[in-house]
Amino acid sequence: MVEDSEDDARLMLRELRGAGYDLTHERVDTGAALEAALDRHPWDLVIGDYSMPHFSGTAALAILRERGLDIPYICVSGTITEELAVAAMKAGANDYVTKGQLKRLLPAIERELREARGRATLRATEASFATLVEHAPVGIYRSTPEGRFLSVNAAVVRMLGYDSAADVLALDMARDVYADAAERQRLVVHVYADAAERQRLVVRDSYSDRQYDNVEATWKRRDGRPLTAQLSVRAVRNGAGQVEYYETFVRDVTDQRRLQEQVLQSQKMEAVGRLAGGIAHDFNNLLTVITSYSDLLLEDLAPGDAKRDDVEQVRKAADGAAALTRQLLAFSRQQVVEPRVVSLNTVVEGLQKILRRVIGEDIELAITLAPDLGAVRADVGQLEQVLMNLAVNARDAMPTGGRLTIETANVEHDPDYARDQEAAAVRRFAMLAVSDTGCGMDEATKARIFEPFFTTKEPGKGTGLGLATVYGIVNQAGGFIWVYSEPDQGTSFKVYLPEVDATAERPTAVPGARVPGGTETVLLVEDAAAVRAVTKQVLERQGYKVLEAADGEAALQLAQRHRGPIDLLLTDVVMPRLSGRELAGQFARLRPDTRVLYASGYTDDSVVRHGILESGTAYLQKPFSPESLARKVRDVLDAR
Predict the structure, then answer these.
(1) What is the pTM of this model?
(2) Which residues, other chains included, contact 347 with Cβ-Cβ below 8 Å and sequence gap of 6+?
């Protein structure tokens, strides 16, 4: 109560209490006192004496309004003149009355109190809703049809990478937010269209008359990085049906879309891998026949025979087909690998002469090998495939000549770096770097180089499997690849493989040395008749006695009938009714001393786990040559 007369204050309070009001009140007569009272307590009603000479009701009202307080204000005075009433109402008073007639205003006071409480509740609700919007985990904004933000919450600011809402409100959406300025215009025409246009357009059933859910657009952050924005939009219209502004919920679904793409790519790789496995099984059987008969013919032909060149061309074509099959299996991770401890230096040194012939005379080859390079555990044949594929790619990138550099080094990476590159949290790696001075790549090309069948070469000049094969091999070995390239500045591939605490093994086989034969008995089990026939011929030429069966059941029956020893079971892995592994298990109960050698054109979970041979398993990869068959059979028979 703003009143300088204590008697008048008591009189008005008596009137209010007589009407049944239980009042908490305070009398003030200065501006400072009113300020202090407002700080101490939330008030529902202010009664102010407008006739106070030193602190008028207008001044009291000004304090309330400066504080943004919506408190009913009743103007009182000893006498109410028309001039005073007009002044009070202009200043914002809710009503006016003489001090002795305050009781007459009680119904109006009650109404004002109810309305004030309602407004206070509404303000609290609005404030709570504003807080909810501001701190919502999804972006919420309003924008004009012309593409200006009217309001944004904190999530939108974070999403776009700006420092404040003021920064975002100053943006032009088409120019500064959309990666493609034309995309917003397309959305306005086809998604944010007015009512008449929406009736003409075909839109998704999930769109309501004014709500558009899960529309996706490509935005860009402040630093230029793209993001996939999922928009849920409502058009707010005026009485004439024209759009005044759009209310939009936006989510950054970049990671979800990337994950979906990875899953889709994985499914594609799995499908291609299954296809590759099926093709490899049949194709490698055919290649085994071609390569074996070619080698047998070459053995029989005299050195000067004119037919030798023809047979050698057949053999060369078969080798090319076998290499393509190995690539299919490698990138789909279905190739059987025989990992051993090896030095990358040994791999490079072993291929040095071949590399010089492959890259040609117009490309300089520089090799720098770390003398103290740590060993890795990997399949040597696959490592050779990695180096050859990278070298061939480098050669093709330098059609007019250049420099190819091959390096090895010991490298330490922190666990975070290795984890980001999808490698195990290993600190020490052996690094193989293959760098060229060729045409280089732009970012768009670099992003796709490991995709199967992606190639930048002319039709007929590349399969698109080379780098996909490299990626599959390195990933299977627990490593990762780093690529740096710029257009016209060359390319550098760095392959990182985890080092192992062991000494690298040295190769023991002597290339070109004649493989000794034997007189042991071999049971050959192969469902492909042509493969069975040529394998039998090769083994018999080596002096072995060969028993043959077309499937596992026939092999078991033959083993029961045969009276002599069976020293080796040479069996295909994938066969109808009884697999090679199941056959070997039953065979061991009949003849526990018989050694087992598996042969197949692709992996099978009964023999391998994740493409790696189980310990102690002897395996011969198809297509095989007579020499590799003879050598493997002799090794298995001679093994302890």
Answers:
(1) 0.48
(2) 380, 383, 384, 387
